[in-house]
């Protein structure tokens, strides 16, 4: 009896036989073709802007990649972007992990406190930057007032206008806004740590640090890797807070790659160089994401 005859026999049989009939699945050789339209649409939407950026970067007005390599302002912005990422990312991760450890156990009103702590991550970066610009105001902002109260004298720090303070102001604003993002992810990861392993560590008289390094961190490492990847890529294209707080000043001391690209784009005089810059950043970010995801996949 052929497969088709078997299917006909099952359909014609009693209800018990029809209930036990296996689900019909498409042959494996046609499955890739079923997702081809959706995959093609995603590729077109993703690759067209990239192709357009590469096309404009290769135009000779006024030099594309040649101008990019000789651009001192761009390299300065790249250094500041990397420095900001190197400082903000570990701070946000450590603060988020510490807060998650505090709120890990049961406590009265835990849901309310967690919701309140997560609010900064839900605020638009432009609003966050505007809020911190008001807080850092040298005449009416509460930051200088609080520092003066602690120091016992008036403090007139020009947070957004002084090159010695502007970078720190951006760093503080970014850490304030995105530490809650790390906190929520770390709290979820810590809540899923195997309790039996923690109990075994307690039986072995493992101290807090040994338990942290031997049990907790290996268990939540995938969550840490994903959180670091997301925030790292976001910091590499940081724009909103910088633009609202300092607009890249004073004296270009807080410019990032995104602010330089934006200024040149709206100026319209360096289209090729701006496109080359955008394409270079896109390549670097894509390579970083690919390598990080590949390493994470191998470790899992």
Give keywords.
75% helix, 0% strand, 300 residues, MetI-like fold, mainly alpha
Mean pLDDT: 80
Bulk shape = flat
SS element count, helices? 14
Rg on CA atoms, Å: 27 Å
CATH architecture: Orthogonal Bundle
Q: H/E order of the elements? A: HHHHHHHHHHHHHH
CATH superfamily: MetI-like
Unreliable residue runs:
1-11
Characterize the quaternary organization of these chains: single chain
Distance between the termini: 46 Å
Count the beta strands.
0
- As a percent range, the share of helical residues equals over 70%
CATH topology: MetI-like fold
In this structure, how is the largest beta sheet organized?
none
Structural class: mainly alpha
Q: Quickly count the domains.
A: 1
Quickly describe the structure.
This protein has 300 residues and is mostly helical. The chain has helices at residues 3-12, 15-19, 31-57, 65-69, 72-102, 110-122, 125-135, 142-151, 163-191, 195-203, 208-236, 240-245, 257-267, 271-299.
Characterise the protein shown here.
This protein has 300 residues and is mainly α. Helix 5 (72-102) runs antiparallel to helix 11 and helix 11 (208-236) packs antiparallel against helix 14. The protein has helices spanning 3-12, 15-19, 31-57, 65-69, 72-102, 110-122, 125-135, 142-151, 163-191, 195-203, 208-236, 240-245, 257-267, 271-299. The protein has one domain: Orthogonal Bundle (MetI-like fold), CATH 1.10.3720.10.
């Amino acid at each position: 009896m052929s497969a088709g005859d078997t299917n006909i026999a099952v359909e014609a049989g009693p209800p018990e036989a029809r209930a036990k009939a296996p689900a019909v699945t498409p042959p494996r050789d046609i499955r890739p073709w079923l997702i081809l339209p959706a995959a093609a649409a995603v590729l077109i939407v993703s690759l067209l802007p990239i192709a357009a950026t590469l096309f404009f970067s290769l135009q000779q007005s006024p030099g594309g990649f040649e101008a990019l390599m000789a651009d001192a302002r761009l390299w300065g912005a790249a250094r500041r972007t990397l420095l900001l990422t190197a400082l903000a990312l570990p701070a946000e991760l450590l603060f988020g992990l510490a807060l998650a450890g505090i709120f890990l156990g049961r406590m009265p009103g835990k849901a309310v406190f967690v919701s309140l702590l997560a609010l900064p991550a839900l605020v638009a970066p432009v609003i966050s930057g505007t809020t911190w610009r008001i807080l850092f105001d040298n005449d009416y902002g509460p930051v200088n007032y609080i520092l003066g109260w602690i120091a016992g004298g008036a403090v007139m720090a020009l947070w957004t206008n002084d090159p010695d303070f502007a970078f720190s102001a951006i760093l503080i604003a970014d850490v304030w806004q995105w530490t809650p993002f790390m906190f929520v992810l770390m709290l979820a990861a810590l809540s899923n740590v195997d309790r039996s392993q923690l109990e075994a560590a307690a039986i072995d008289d493992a101290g807090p640090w040994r338990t942290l390094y031997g049990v907790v961190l290996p268990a939540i490492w995938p969550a840490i890797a994903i959180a670091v990847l997301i925030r790292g890529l976001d910091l590499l294209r940081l724009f909103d807070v910088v633009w609202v707080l300092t607009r890249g000043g004073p004296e270009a001391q807080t410019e990032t790659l995104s602010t330089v690209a934006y200024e040149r784009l709206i100026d319209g005089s360096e289209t090729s160089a701006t496109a080359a810059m955008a394409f270079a950043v896109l390549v670097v970010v894509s390579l970083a994401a690919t390598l990080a995801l590949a390493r994470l996949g191998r470790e899992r």
